[in-house]
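> agent: user asked for a holo structure of the chain below bound to zinc ion. Plan: (1) validate sequence alphabet, (2) canonicalize SMILES, (3) run complex prediction with ligand conditioning, (4) return tokens. Step 1... ok. Step 2... ok. Step 3 dispatched.
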Amino acid sequence: MRLAEMTWPQAEAYFKEHDTVLIALGSTECHGRHMPLGTDWLIPEKILEVLEPLTDALIAPTMPYGNTDYLSVFPGTVSLGPEVTYQVMSRILDGLRKHGARRFVVLNGHGGNNAPLDRLALDLQEHGCVLIPVNWWTLVWDLVPDWNGNTPWSGGHGGAEETAAVMAINPDLIDYDAIADSNLKGLSDELPFSSLATVRFRGVDIPVRRFSRDVTDNGWAGSDHPKYATKEWGEQMIRATAAYTAALIEALTKVDLDR
Ligand SMILES: [Zn+2]
């Protein structure tokens, strides 16, 4: 059930009987030379498409921009930054709250949105509501441990995991000839980047945030090389996330928020 396709009396009727809203949040950003800029919201939208027949929850329109300042130097990337991401989502969720929403599930496609979402969850609690973010790319590692490339950052950004999910949406969205090594740079020979946001020193990954063109001139980073992506894997991850989220929504609707 899509808010965008309902009339206002239908929305009014929904909120008389229900208080759950599902919304996808992403980012419009570089994902390596081989992947589309919409990767972080196209994947959550695909999950919503598979999820829609499995749930009665109202689906609000997708938010395609988020917090991605560190990638903003790559052409086509547009960042709202952490403060505006928080403000925009706050207004959207608060608008829905005023009409009756109390249970929010945010299908998130981008790690940079986590801090604003944490803050929103606490804001909403103060209004007697609850917000649960679903980060599909880490959720699937817990659902099927083999889908994790065995390092904390695998599937991190534009690697095989996201490439597989985009292939499941439309294989033609990938520029296969442009798939190449990410060739991570370093602060120095002694401090090589091990992901977009870490350098490795003496076997330990230390967080270091830099504009990402100083980290990689390709734009993807991770231990799962995109050349290993398959459409079938992408379809499995999308189906698994949709089924899990449908069950999570059902559990959430049973939570007593007035306790
Ligand atoms: Zn991404």
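> agent: step 4 complete. Summary for user: Residues 31, 39-40, 110, 157, 162 surround zinc ion (CB under 6 Å). The domain at 3-253 is CATH 3.40.50.10310 (Rossmann fold).
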